[in-house]
Write a structure and sequence with these properties.
single chain; alpha/beta; Rossmann fold; five-stranded parallel β-sheet; 35% helix
Length: 227
């Protein structure tokens, strides 16, 4: 497929959610342009997962873009701050929140989309089984989409951008089930925030807990190797 009008820019972190989103975009008939941000994150092993997923799904282009957010810090994923292993407080934004991450990453997707002639951005944000991040909420996505169509040449000329969030209201169990329905090997994806030196998932961070619970609730085997 070479028709740019049917290309989708997929923000591909290498996690389960981004893998399923990419699979759904392909199922919907889009040619995939995958964008992965190497922000020098603690769990950079997810970049290897993103590469595997992009290749498996036949992405027509996969860009791994370096953006060293450790220069900003402010998060357990980008600074010398311990990743919590005892769960997160209710109604609290956890220290694994990376300041403005989805705003930054979606802005990069938007620039790539306009440059490639694509008008569809796909991202795996989730407002149910998530860790309290403000940039995973529906109102954020609506606001970003409105901004995208005010801030770009394409948008002001009436060639509007759409931000697709098919996982927004799914539970982690439903996402795991969707991966199985799409025939995707969940073992290609990576979720852990604090991997061990031998590249095993810690099993205790919030992301590991959510993943393991999702597979258990779905009655599916979690292929993750936990420490």
């Amino acid at each position: 497929m070479t028709d740019n009008s049917k290309s989708a820019i997929v923000l591909l972190s290498g996690g389960l959610d981004s893998m399923v989103v990419a699979g759904l975009a392909r199922e919907a008939g889009y040619a995939l342009v995958a964008l992965t941000i190497d922000y020098n994150q603690r769990h950079r092993v997810e970049l290897e997962s993103a590469t595997r997923i992009a290749a498996h799904l036949g992405a027509i282009e996969h860009i791994i873009l370096p953006l060293d957010l450790t220069r900003f810090g402010g998060s357990a994923l980008t600074a010398d701050i311990d990743v919590p292993k005892d769960g997160v407080e209710d109604d609290a934004i956890p220290v694994t929140y990376v300041p403005a991450r989805n705003t930054i990453f979606l802005s990069l997707c938007l620039g790539l989309a306009e440059a490639r002639g694509a008008r569809d951005l796909w991202i795996g944000v989730n407002a149910l089984d998530y860790s309290g991040y403000p940039d995973c909420r529906p109102e954020f996505i609506r606001s970003f989409e409105a901004m995208a169509n005010l801030a770009t040449k394409a948008g002001v000329e009436g060639d509007a951008f759409t931000v697709h969030t098919p996982l927004l209201h799914m539970s982690k169990a439903q996402i795991a089930t969707e991966a199985a329905r799409l025939g995707l090997d969940a073992g290609m994806s990576w979720s852990c925030y604090d991997p061990t030196p031998d590249h095993k998932a810690c099993g205790k961070c919030d992301s590991c807990r959510l993943r393991a619970k999702g597979f258990a609730d779905a009655g599916l085997v979690d292929p993750t190797v936990y420490a």
